[in-house]
Design a protein that fits this description.
Blueprint lengths: L2 H13 L7 E4 L3 H10 L8 E4 L2 H9 L4 E2 L7 E6 L3 E2 L5 E2 L6 H10 E9 L12 E5 L4 H10 L3 E4 L10 E6 L6 H9 L4 E4 L1 E2 L6 E6 L2 E6 H4 L3
Parallel strand pairs: 1-2, 1-4, 2-3, 4-7, 7-13
Antiparallel strand pairs: 5-6, 6-12, 8-10, 8-11, 9-10, 13-14
Helix pairs in contact: 1-2
The protein binds ribulose-5-phosphate (5RP).
């Protein structure tokens, strides 16, 4: 089974987690794209969706799902999104696709975060995947120096702007011993918009794609925070 088939598998499983009659939060990336495709036959029984990126908004509209601005919506019962890495406590690195800020906002506003991932994303310890950090352009050099002081090697994502008009710095080599503390520290640096650590608000459910089929884990049974 290849990676695309695993993504389609978890996408189909995640559709089962979407109640009828709600506004749904929808993430960004190739796994989220598979989810949107799998959701298309259910378009008629959703009120609509809030998208975590312009790309996702376009894809949702293309399959007939009404896209709402988050400010128009009182509650989001469920948010479905992928991850670049997820650990045993359902803390994640996200932002490989550059949508980390809107993803973190939609996740924060949602009652339940369902992470969909193939098994290559499951890690014992976060940090092999470069940590994306969205920054206001004038803070690029300052924030890069501060990230280097933390032990990382910051690299500007060349030729890339987020949907918010900002830059992304990808950081390799960080030692992520305490993901919640590191998330708070990086997000406390002047000029940082969002760190791609999703530890303070991790996932509530993980649907993992394996060769043996999708496995659904609930955070209450595995989370140590
Ligand atoms: C985008 C993200 C994605 O969820 C993450 O990069 C995973 O993407 P993919 O499903 O393509 O592997 O955080 O900003």
């Amino acid at each position: 089974m290849d990676a695309q088939q695993l993504k389609q598998m978890v996408a189909l499983e995640a559709v089962k987690q979407v109640p009828a009659g709600i506004v749904l939060g929808v993430g960004t990336g190739s796994t989220a794209d598979c989810f949107i495709d799998a959701l298309a036959p259910r378009a008629h029984d959703l009120v609509g969706a809030v998208a975590s990126s312009d790309r996702t908004a376009t894809r949702l509209a293309a399959v007939g799902i009404r896209v709402f601005d988050l400010n128009e919506v009182d509650s989001l019962p469920v948010y479905v999104d992928g991850a670049d890495e997820i650990d045993h406590a359902f803390r994640m690195i996200k932002g490989g696709g550059g949508a980390l800020t809107r993803e973190k906002i939609v996740a924060a506003a949602s009652a339940r975060f369902v992470c969909i991932a193939d098994e290559s994303k499951r890690v014992e310890r976060l940090g092999r995947f470069p940590l994306p950090v969205e920054v206001i352009p004038m803070a690029r050099a300052y924030v890069s120096r501060e990230l280097a002081r933390l032990g990382g090697q910051p690299r500007l994502r060349e030729g890339f702007r987020t949907d918010n008009g900002n830059l992304v710095i990808d950081v390799v080599g960080l030692s992520i011993d305490d993901p919640i503390a590191l998330e708070a520290h990086i997000e406390g640096l002047a000029g940082v918009v969002t760190a791609g650590l999703f530890a303070r608000r991790g996932a509530d459910c993980l649907i993992l794609g394996t060769a043996a089929g999708p496995v659904v884990y609930e955070a209450s049974k595995t989370r140590d925070r």
